[in-house]
Amino acid sequence: MPKVEANGISIYYEQQGSGEPLILIPYLTADNACYAFQVPEYAKHFTCITLDLRSTGKTDQTDGQVSMELYADDVAALMQALGIPQAHITGLSLGAAAGMWLAAKHPDRVKSLSLHSGWAKSDDYLKTVVAGWQAAAKGFNSVTEMAIHCIFPWCLTPELYVGKANYVTQLAHFVRTRPVMSVVHFLQQSNAVMVHDAEAQLARITAPTQITFGSRDQLTSLRFADQLKNNIRDSELLVFEDCAHAALYEKVDEFNEKTLAFLKRHSQPLSASV
What we know:
By secondary structure, the chain is of the alpha/beta class. It has a domain at 3-119 and 200-265: Rossmann fold, CATH 3.40.50.1820. Helix content is 42%, strand content 18%. It contains 11 helices and 8 strands. It has helices at residues 39-42, 68-82, 94-105, 124-140, 143-155, 158-163, 165-176, 183-194, 225-231, 247-250, 252-265, and strands spanning 3-6, 9-16, 20-25, 46-51, 87-92, 110-116, 209-214, 235-240.
């Protein structure tokens, strides 16, 4: 699959489907495959472009600090390199944080913005949780095992573990098949989560925006909803009931249906044949 030179690095991406471009930004620790349950449905209506962020997956590994702003600039450079003037942008958690910066800094490039389980500025609760993940990654000496044993329980409800244990096991197996992220690069990426602050950027976002949360998410809970909804002018809020941080895995069909409906509302319908 292809790579492209953008913003000083070689970025790996995959493309599927046809229609208006839709770029999906991964979340913490994840590579492009994290939207595997969404792309098959989205690709029926959009050209889906999934990518590996710097120092993840097959994209170049880099030294030094990273930030949500840098990730946003990487995505904008990817679009430039691929000749995509404008795209729908979607992201979950870290991907949502990067999406905020992209829509604020490069507003002409964003046709619509989908922010799933996002937050404008990290608070002490979020920082404490992520610091625990950092300690666990060092203890396991494995980002993969840390994610499965420490991040998963924040992303999925207890009921999913109890009622669909095999499904959770399958998700864990899937994560173990993906390219390994180094502890050093996880620390860089999670530091970017801890210092994320896009409060001053929200008013610069002009794209129609869908904001979603899981009703039982504790990590980026509904405590962040009002600030996003009230400061992003053309935005709408959707809550997935009985979901934690990762509604895209807990209620796949509902998540796909409702997020795709938003995307389709803000896409240009194909002209009828004459």
